[in-house]
Specification:
β11 and β12 form a beta hairpin. About 15% of the residues have low confidence. By secondary structure, the chain is α+β, with helices and mostly antiparallel strands. It has 3 domains: about 30 residues, no CATH class; about 200 residues, no CATH class; about 110 residues, 2-Layer Sandwich (hypothetical protein PF0899 fold), CATH 3.30.2320. The longest helix has 28 residues. The strands form 3 sheets. Strands 1, 2, 3, 6, 7, 14, 15 and 16 form an 8-stranded mixed β-sheet that branches. Strands 8-17-13-9-12-11-10 form a 7-stranded mixed β-sheet, with helices on both faces.
Length: about 450
């Protein structure tokens, strides 16, 4: 039995056990005692771990690369060709970045380091690398990168608002480094997974037009009648490019001296996770004043709120009321978002028909759902149920737009950590985010 199947079957057994325990709770009309709560929490954690293992194995299957449905056109040849090109380029990029780091510290670089850097056009003597978040001008560039991201995170949608014409040398930065960086960002913050990301070549402010024409309708007229003129009121939301940094990342010299160690992947993970924490927080609860407008803040500011039945409890009726508070147009493709602790509470709730509102997707081959809608975990949202807390979002989450400037800078800090035999690295990137809401409220939040 393979690991994926074992993990799926284990998750199924754990899910069944969770339901049995909660059914007993409802039958006896009481809450868990302390020991029962600890036991249920452990099963819930084990279920989550089993699902992560199963999904990890599914993403690593040989057939998971390339564009979906391509096999019926070229019998999989395109997929394998792309994988081959991607593998060779990733190897070159890894060697080049490792060579750049070693050269920065006066360490000896191998012939393969130099050859990889020359082929990619990277000058190992420069103490700064400008990294492209996307590349559209070279074959095997952004298209292959997007394929890989979508394979691993099916709900992610990437859009480039403008075609990027890179200056000489800018198109030759290590794309493999950025793949690792992007995957780490996606794995940490589900705002990037649930919402819509678009990238621009420059960082100038960009207005996004919005309109609310819901009060207007067409009309029935007689023959030879002049039609009435009804203007459309158009507003705009301005997207800026606020500057974010990972702060310093310290790397021991021993790691740089280990030729078998993939330093580029490690740096990408370290830098991405630090940036992901601040970006996910600002995309969720940012104030909009000299920083992104968070999706929760935007809902509160636009009065797109639904009051919970209780200030200290979360009920199945609350989730239904939130669902119905959103216009039917936005319910199709809508999704929930909440903190993991809130999701744990939701897994114990039943509707008025005695059915659990949370459903695992094991038998249906899809992610778990809440009221048959996808649910995203966002650790930047409120984790407790009390007065004034915003515990649950629902609606068209892709109406939240994340704007990123398409380059990230990686700098080496030369002397700061020399006494500890470490070297520092820091990255910078620019981004903004806001919810496109002209009064139709595509997303609403449950407030206690």
């Amino acid at each position: 039995m393979n690991a994926r199947k074992e993990a799926r079957e284990l998750a199924g057994r754990l899910s069944k056990r969770m339901r049995e325990m909660t059914d007993k709770l409802h039958a006896e009309n009481r809450t868990f005692n302390a020991s029962e709560q600890v036991h249920w929490d452990q099963i819930n954690d084990d279920y989550n771990a089993a699902i992560r293992i199963a999904e990890s194995h599914e993403r690593s299957q040989p057939g998971s690369e390339g564009l979906p449905g391509r096999d019926d056109v070229d019998h999989g040849k395109g997929k394998h060709n792309r994988a081959g090109k991607r593998s060779r380029r990733a190897e070159l990029e890894t060697r080049a970045v490792n060579g750049w780091v070693r050269r920065q510290h006066g360490k000896r670089i191998s012939k393969s380091h130099g050859e990889a850097a020359r082929e990619l056009g990277i000058d190992l003597r420069h103490n700064e690398l400008e990294l492209s978040l996307y590349r559209t001008t070279n074959a095997g560039g952004y298209a292959d990168f997007r394929d890989m991201v979508v394979d691993q995170f099916p709900r992610v949608e990437k859009r480039a608002m403008s075609v990027m014409k890179l200056a000489q040398g800018a198109a030759l930065v290590p794309e493999g480094f950025m793949r690792n960086f992007e995957v780490a960002l996606l794995a940490y913050g589900q705002m990037r997974d649930a919402c819509d990301i678009w990238r621009t070549a420059e960082g100038n402010p960009i207005p996004w037009p919005v309109t609310n024409d819901t009060v207007n309708t067409g009309s029935l007229i007689s023959e030879n009648t002049t039609v009435s003129e009804v203007d459309v009121t158009v507003g705009q939301i301005l997207f800026n490019a606020y500057k974010f940094t990972s702060n310093m990342v310290k790397v021991p010299v021993e790691l740089m001296e280990d030729s078998a160690f993939d330093l580029s992947e490690e740096l990408a993970n370290l830098l991405a996770i630090r940036l992901a924490r601040i970006l996910n927080t600002k995309y969720t609860v940012g104030s909009g004043a000299a920083e992104p407008m968070g999706i929760v803040t935007a809902c509160v500011n636009n009065s797109a709120t639904t009051s919970a039945l209780s200030a200290t409890a979360l009920s199945a009726d609350d989730t239904i009321a939130l669902w119905h508070s959103v216009d039917p147009l936005y319910r199709t493709g809508g999704a929930y978002m909440c903190h993991d602790t809130i999701l744990k509470n939701l897994r114990q709730l039943k509707d008025g028909m005695g059915r659990y509102i949370w459903s695992n997707g094991l038998d249906k081959g899809r992610p778990d759902t809440l009221n048959d809608c996808p649910v995203y975990i966002n650790q930047a949202m409120d984790s407790t149920v009390s007065s004034g807390k915003n515990t649950l979002l629902f609606g068209q989450l892709k109406k939240y737009k994340i704007r990123e400037v398409a380059t990230m800078r990686l700098r080496r800090l030369v002397e700061r950590f020399a006494d500890a035999d470490q070297e520092g690295y820091v990255s910078f990137m620019r981004a903004d985010g806001n919810l496109l809401d002209a009064g139709t409220h595509p997303v609403k939040v449950l407030t206690h």
